[in-house]
Amino acid sequence: MLTAALLLPACDGGGEDGKKDGAKADAPEAAEKKAETGPQAKAPPKKDAKKDDRVLADSGLGRGGKLKAFQILNCDDGEEYCQVCRYGSNPKLMAVGSADDEAFRKDLEDLDAIVKKYGADKVKAFAVITDIEGGKAITPKDAEAAKAKAKALKAELGVDFPVVVPAPEGGKNEVWEDYYNITKSRTVMFSNARNEVIYSAVEPEDFADLGEAIDELLGA
Questions:
Q1: How far apart are CA 184 and CA 137, in angstroms?
Q2: Helix, strand or coil for residue 18?
Q3: For 113-134, what is each residue's pLDDT tens digit?
Q4: Which of 13, 66, 101, 108 has its C-alpha lying 20 to 30 A from 92's C-alpha?
Q5: DSSP type of residue 99
Q6: What is the DSSP string of 142-158?
Q7: CA-CA distance, 65 to 14, in Å (whole number)?
Q8: Nearest to residue 110, comparing CAs of 121, 91, 95?
Q9: Domains defined for the chain, CATH in brackets
Q10: Spatial contact of 96 and 128, defined as CB atoms under 8 Å apart
């Protein structure tokens, strides 16, 4: 399913390093030198496509970074899919935090109010509930327990947007753990139609700057 999600246009997450070798044919001298080195010559190391060209904040992606497709489990029905992809070319508000973080709970209520102010047809939002160990967000060790906790949180807060957890994908959700750089609860990112982050905050005092970013994007 992840493979299918990655093929969607809205899931442009940086791709692999697919540059072609456009070099001209070897000159005689170069060919002779190449023959001397033989098969022992080492090719240049490939770049890590998961992390190339990232723009990082203290936690999460900074402005100019790009949301990347990753699999999640929806706490309401348990469906596994890519929320970034499902929202297509809509502006996306992504809030990340721990279920036991009281300040994060308040963030979700505030963000729900912001989405309702602008309209869910103009600003899409979702919350990713994650545990953080050793200064890094992790894949749930018990997916069912994580979904249940996220579902209880959504019901308690009464927010309308999806509340999800990273899908284990056989053990480790590599994109979630290795690409998104989540190191702290209360990490919030807002992207434009191209999934480019135009607002990024960690433990924000308020969301005034987010409102300005949304106004600028929507031309309000």
A1: 8
A2: coil
A3: 999 999 999 999 999 999 999 9
A4: 101
A5: T
A6: SHHHHHHHHHHHHHHHT
A7: 10
A8: 95
A9: 56-218 (3.40.30.10)
A10: yes
